């Protein structure tokens, strides 16, 4: 059995080797907080390999990850999925080239477009009305766009979405591969896919050329850790290696890499029992929530696309309550911190490390809140007309972006800062997005519209985290002069 990176680090920390090298804490924090973590924090020293030229224990650790996910090649990422996205796009699309990009992608994909001065062709997934979330990417739309744009060099999509919606990756891959175009899947929220019948298959097995997994999002690993998987001959492996060195730190954390290695080991040894337990807990939770009359829980079968069972979506669209209010009640009264709140729903993430007690507490809290909602005055749709109109305005239905300049063209243009309320028909030079999930409402070079301004104001009024501009209060915006 191979020695784990963590065990090797632990043994080294207990030895009499003295560190005349970085990092500066010298593994000697003298009883201070987090002392144990500092004991195994090292740099690239003899016997511990080098992530950017892996020949020993790190090579073996990445090979184990590759075998687990059945990829031809897997790389550890210690700068998060962000550096995997940047590397994948940079390696597959020539500078000034064209890429097909689903508009609901994470901002890191837009940063790659900026850095490589690419021309994006946006594809707009439809919005599901009940929750105001993006639906799956339509395969026929991808086929149509590729027919009309034969110079597209790569397809980039997010599946699952932050909310758990899964696209038909296998069909998208077949469509793109007929034209010898590689498919990159940001599967950051699907690192747990493919390990149990109740969860979707992962995109590696479905034929995607590159797949990015955030192991820390849905698996037991440190924040900032991820994987990049590579398959097939449509990807230049040398370019991938080059750009990983460009976008990843030259001093990768051994703590983070040991965390990835340990996560892979847990899945190799215990995945069957852990995922069976999670699936059972979810079934019990949903059964306890069957009596809910107002709060609706999204489940597989509620739509015509595949859905990640581990995402807990709680709709309050037909309630006299907003998602923000529900999230605050769960937090302040029941001490249950959810992942995200949106105008019409709240989202939670369940993982193989959740407990039966946690699910019980959430089910009981929802039951009590749902009972209280029975006593609130309702209209036929279940909420006041004013509240309903507010929620309907805040659906994440952005409409098609009105691009005036490419992302990279605005750097040298003269700019000015104006009140946000006067920004309609002006070209933004800043991103505006809700975080999470980090999908741009407006990207640099795009025109501000009345609809976008109304959407931003509605989010602000509902106390959601609208971010991006230098002005944190979102009262001013930088635009092209």
Give an overview in words.
The chain has 481 residues and is of the alpha+beta class. The protein is built from 14 helices and 20 strands. The strands form six sheets. Strands 1-10-9-8-6-2-3 form a seven-stranded mixed sheet, with helices on both faces. A four-stranded antiparallel sheet has the order 11-13-15-14. The termini are far apart.
Concise description?
The chain is of the alpha+beta class. Helices cover 35% and strands 16% of the residues. The protein is built from 14 helices and 20 strands.
Q: How is the topology of this model organized?
A:
Layout: H1 5-13, H2 35-39, H3 57-69, E1 73-77, H4 80-92, E2 98-102, H5 107-116, E3 119-123, E4 127-128, E5 133-134, H6 139-148, E6 152-158, E7 165-166, H7 169-177, E8 183-186, E9 210-213, H8 215-218, E10 226-230, H9 237-247, H10 254-288, E11 296-297, E12 306-307, E13 311-315, H11 323-332, E14 340-341, E15 345-349, H12 356-373, H13 385-393, E16 415-419, E17 432-434, E18 439-442, H14 450-461, E19 466-467, E20 476-480
Parallel strand pairs: 2-3, 2-6, 6-8, 8-9
Antiparallel strand pairs: 1-10, 4-5, 7-12, 9-10, 11-13, 13-15, 14-15, 16-20, 17-18, 17-19
Helix pairs in contact: 3-10, 4-5, 4-9, 6-7, 10-12
Helicity level: 25-40%
| Number of helical segments with 4 or more residues | 14
The unreliable regions are 379-395
Shape: globular
Order of strands in the sheet with most strands: 1-10-9-8-6-2-3
How does CATH name the architecture of the domain at 274-389?
Alpha-Beta Complex
CATH fold description of the domain at 274-389: Aspartate Aminotransferase, domain 1
Measured on Cα atoms, how large is the radius of gyration? 24 Å
Strand content: 15-25%
Question: What does the largest sheet look like?
Answer: 7 strands, mixed
